[in-house]
Design goal:
CATH topology of the largest domain: TIM Barrel
Number of helices: 15
Distance between the termini: 44 Å
Helix content: 25-40%
Largest sheet: 8 strands, mixed
CATH class of the largest domain: Alpha Beta
CATH architecture of the largest domain: Alpha-Beta Barrel
Structural class: alpha/beta
Number of domains: 2
Shape: globular
Length: 449
């Protein structure tokens, strides 16, 4: 049986660069492509399946992009490429559910590399999938820490558009996309509020500003409600025409068509909200319009855990590593928030809190939550199984089980610790090279005088 050698893909890449037809030079990519889907057997590895107890010394068989077998007494198929992972650990690939990765390369100072939002307030037909840059340098440095798939979402306006679920390997958007239309993104306008001010004039000015903001907010919310109602009616008209072609054919409307699955509760809605009052308003608006909400942000979610639990609304937490926003908050208010949600029984997932460039900090963000009260097992679930469950893709991702997509990371230590190194990485059953822009620059400059 052949044995897989470490960093063979890097040697192949070097050969390509010497050959004069480098894939990287042609594509402008820092992300070497993964190898083919083959049959692999990862032997003598400590398996952390997430869905059950650890296996101290076991074997994982991968074939056709799927996990075929897992256990302590699994046989190695004939002809499989064998990886001896003695002393290493196998984890399911992590999922960052709160990024805009691939949509923004240099957020400040290079506008041509940013494609996270569209002009206007209502863009439900905008799709992150069509703005994706598969060769973003952020992808390579994110996946080598064990992040194998992400939710990339548009931002801006009130109806921002549709988020996509992406595998972090592939040279084109179709190769990376697991779901082009995973969720709709809505950010409700916030209500205005006046500061204390000094003197009567300032107080009056603040009150006037608050009234202006609230009037604008009311108009925007009315417009959003009307659009959702129109989408519901549009969907009914399309269905009626499909049943009876003698009816007038509805005029095609790409904006309303993109909202049909949302208003029918078939597509979840990412409701961006941080303040406790905004979280409650977002959930109330979603229920009023029969939407399926997922809170994104959730900085103050720990203050409304009973509300979230009662309404069974999950939270994608993006502020775990943020500094406190109120002067009387303790320094660890955000570090300890996941533990409070877990204790209250609120469904949640932890994200890096970064749109792209620092998504690679996801495992350490979960590790910080574990250091401040969240159980170690729960911290791992918060970046593997729980986000998959929240988005309805737990049948594919989140655990090491037969039938799941073979997104795996093999490490030399605890995957949530910064000192841990990734030794092997699989995405969609393909062995992924561990070279990145960072390793390239290190190799280029480490020996300079």
């Amino acid at each position: 049986m052949p044995t897989v050698s470490f960093r063979v893909p890097a040697l192949c890449l070097a050969a390509a660069l010497v050959s004069g037809t480098p894939a990287r030079a042609q594509l402008g990519s820092f992300n070497p492509p993964p190898g083919p889907q083959k049959t692999f057997a990862i032997k003598n590895v400590r398996i952390v399946p997430v869905s059950g107890p650890e296996i101290a010394n076991g074997t994982i068989v991968i074939s056709g992009g799927k996990i075929q077998a897992v256990g302590a007494s699994v046989s190695v198929p004939a002809g499989a490429d064998v990886i001896d992972a003695s002393g290493l650990r196998a984890y399911p690939g992590m999922m960052d559910a709160g990024t805009s990765i691939g949509l923004s390369e240099i957020g400040q100072g290079a506008n041509a590399t940013v494609d996270v939002s569209e002009v206007g307030s209502f863009n439900p037909n905008a799709q992150a999938y069509f703005g994706l840059n598969p060769h973003s340098a952020h992808i390579g440095v994110a996946r080598v820490v064990g992040i194998t798939h992400v939710v990339s979402r548009p931002t801006g306006g009130i109806l921002s558009g549709q988020a996509a679920l992406l595998n972090l390997a592939g040279s084109t958007a179709p190769q990376m996309a697991v779901s082009r239309n995973l969720a709709m993104v809505i950010e409700l306008p916030r209500s205005g509020f006046g500061g204390r001010g000094f003197g009567g004039f300032q107080a009056a000015q603040n009150a006037a500003n608050t009234q202006d903001v609230n009037r604008t907010r009311t108009r925007q919310l009315d417009s959003l409600r009307a659009m959702l109602k129109d989408a519901e009616a549009y969907g009914k008209a399309i269905d009626a025409y499909a049943r009876d072609k003698t009816l007038p054919r509805p005029k095609q409307d790409v904006v309303l068509a993109s909202l049909v699955a949302t208003v029918r509760g078939q597509m979840p809605v990412l409701m961006v909200a941080d303040r406790a009052t905004d979280i409650k308003e977002a959930v109330g608006f979603a229920e009023e319009n029969k939407l399926k909400p997922i809170i994104v942000g959730g900085r103050d979610a720990w203050q409304v855990t009973a509300f979230l639990k009662d309404h069974d609304v999950p939270v994608i937490m993006t502020a775990v590593m943020d500094l406190p926003t109120r002067e009387d908050d303790p320094y660890d208010v955000n570090y300890g928030a996941p533990a409070k949600l877990a204790q209250a029984g609120v469904r949640f997932a932890i994200t890096s809190g970064d749109a792209g460039s620092e998504a690679r900090n996801l495992p350490y963000t979960a590790g910080m939550a574990a250091a401040f009260g969240l159980g170690k097992d729960d911290a791992l679930k918060s970046v593997t199984l729980w986000p998959a469950q929240i988005f309805g893709v737990a049948d594919k991702f989140g655990t090491i089980e037969p039938g799941k997509v073979a997104n795996l990371v093999i490490t030399d230590g605890d995957v949530l610790e910064a000192k841990t190194n990734t030794r092997y990485l699989f995405i969609d059953g393909r062995l992924v090279p561990l070279d990145t822009k960072h390793t390239d620059l290190n190799d280029k400059f480490k020996d300079r005088p």
